Amino acid sequence: MLLENTGLNGMRSDLGHLDESGDKLGFVRWQWEYRRATYDLKLHDRTNGQDYFLRITTRAVEGKLENPEAILEVEAVYIGRATFPHGLDYESAIPQPILNAATQRTQDLKKLLS
User: Fold this and answer.
1) CB atoms within 10 A of CB 102
2) What does the buried/exposed string (b/e) look like for 6-18 if buried means 16 or more CB atoms within 10 Å of the residue's CB?
3) Hey, CA dihedral for 86, 43, 11, 112, is it positive or negative?
4) Which fold has domain 11-113?
5) Residue 8 above 90 pLDDT?
6) How far apart are the first and last CA of the chain?
7) Residue 108 pLDDT
8) Where are the domains of the chain?
9) Region for 60 from its dihedrals, namely left if φ exceeds 0, alpha if ψ lies in -120 to 50, beta otherwise
């Protein structure tokens, strides 16, 4: 599910600050290459035992990702249910408590990046 109106889309930050801010909130930069990086936050639903991931995709608009001063721009924010062994199902319904937690984390990240 694409999360719109998070206020993150289009925000820019240097890689070092984005890594530090994301780390404070539990995000991990899992996937990256020279121009793109993905930040994931695992959210566990105790009622159904499912894991969900809040995923933020970014693209380097200045520099390359091995440089902490590279400037990244947030492209999109997604949430999906984890599937075995390594996938995300973006079409599944997301429980409201998980959506609420995801919304709060996106707002917290927005404040740290502002």
Assistant:
1) 23
2) bebbebebbbeeb
3) negative
4) TATA-Binding Protein (3.30.310)
5) yes
6) 25
7) 97
8) 11-113
9) beta
How confident is the model at residue 30, as a pLDDT? 82
Tell me: cis bond preceding 95? Omega within 30 of 0 counts.
no
Q: Which residue has the higher pLDDT, 44 or 33?
A: 44
Task: Please report, to the nearest 10 degrees, the dihedral formed by the alpha carbons of residues 94, 21, 84, 81 taken in order.
Answer: 10
Q: What is the pLDDT of residues 51-73, one digit of tens each?
A: 999 999 999 999 988 889 999 99
pLDDT at 103: 96
Asked if residue 35 lies in contact with residue 49, where contact means CB atoms within 8 angstroms, the answer is: no
Any idea how long the chain is? Answer: 114
